[in-house]
Amino acid sequence: MSGAAPGYVAILSAVLVKDLRAELRSKETLATMGLFGLVMTFILAFGFTADPATNRRVIPGALWIALLFAGTLGVGRTFAREAKDDAFSALILSPAPRSAVLLAKMIVNFCLSLSVMVLVTPLLAIMLRVDLLPSLGPIMLMLALGAGGFAVVGTPLAVMAVNARFAEVLLPMVVFPMVSPVLIGGVKGTSVILGTTFGDDGVGGWIQLMLAFDVAFGVGGLFLFERMVTE
Amino acid sequence: MKLFPVMAVVGAAAVAAAHYLTFIVAPMERTMGAAQRIFYFHVPSAWLCYLGFILGFVGSIVYLYNRKAKADAFALAAVEVGLCFGLIVLLTGPLWARAAWGVWWKWEPRLTSMALLFLIFAAYWVLRSFGGRGEGVRRFAAVLAVFGAPNILFVHVAVKKWRGDHPDMVVSNGLTSDMRLALYPSLLALLIVFFLLLHLRYRAHRDALTVQAIRRRLARLRGI
Amino acid sequence: MTVKTMARAAAVSLGLALLAPALAQDAPPEAAKTAFEKTERLENLRYRHLWIAYGTIWLVVFGFAFRTWQRSERTAKELDDLKSRLADLEGRNG
After folding, report:
1. Which of B123, B127, B146 sits opposite A224 (nearest CB)?
2. B103 CB within 8 Å of a chain C CB
């Protein structure tokens, strides 16, 4: 490559735009994740439907289980597009800062799992007959923080997992306990929002915790990524 | 060197002495009775479990930076020993819970965070055992340990916020000097066992790697 | 001292270690203030239970250590063998 190397932001946006455009064109990941979310909504509704008061108490759990599974599916497909034609090696070997590539992938994963939740959340609300509308904003904020935590931890681990046997089984097993703080924060925070649990400091403490998690692991992952991948 | 038999004797003798102090010398706690004596075994084990995971974290960081197989062997050994002590904690914890609270398991912060932490590093161990032996898997595992150890903090804060009910304070504040007399020797005995296991596992992993390397060289030489 | 004596000494020490919880006396029942406490707390755990738990744990831990050591010794022997073969081959080639 000749001339000045493109800047960090340019590379970040190039990878990001490439992935999002490819996704919007083929819709393969989004379609499979969306269908998966739909199926899961039905299963969760079958499993949990009870009287309205109980539904209101279980819906946070249902939402976060949906996010967890949809997120796992998406994270596992992170480098599926690059796996063909060995494009992943090309991406890593290019002089582009690797952390920019990782950051772009994190953002893609975040967008994918959040868009699945945009579909699943209203469906679950309708099926479990819980009125989420008054508190939709805070709930989506919690889900976004959760999707962020999942993307931030899951993406680098997904990159590493391409080397392992049983990667598709190992990855969820590895990621689930890792994101448990976000999961606990999300479920409890959502039930605080819905008024089924009472915390000492409301939902703020949970948001702080999740934000701290996202930032810490996001920055740590980006910082370490240069050391994680070689060749 | 035949270090193992010596260390095993020292370790077993230390354990015997610690148990003597725990069960005979330490005074009977009034309300908890026999169950309180689990404390002398349970708490130092939890410390050593954390120590194992932290050493695994350090070894993994070093490995990611210098890619020396020895650092990786050390990290793996440390995590294994940490898991061993974690298992002790998770076995003695419910015994205590049954005696103190009447249930085997309670969503108590320390118990829960220990269990989650155990799961993270159990994943590390499963990955190392069944994920293959390549360099990529070792890197994957190292990243896992590097992400996993700082997670102790988040898991602990989250679980504590979730359920704020911890009996540990009551226990450690109520320690008499006789109880301390039993706690620290227990810690020392377990520390000896910890380093015995760490040394053994490290040596096993390191030698296995060397054997692999020599085998490869032999095969190459024969190929000439 | 031979390895065998050492192993025997370790086993005896472990036996002694397990003797302590076996010898310890259970708490007198009057330690519990009410009948409720007596049944809910003290009745549930006896030294016998602790003895079984500790015994299992130490057996597993030292068994694990012993197995690792055994395997490690075997690997060390294999290593020596391989090294001499390597030196042999390299001497012949180089």
Report:
1. B146
2. no
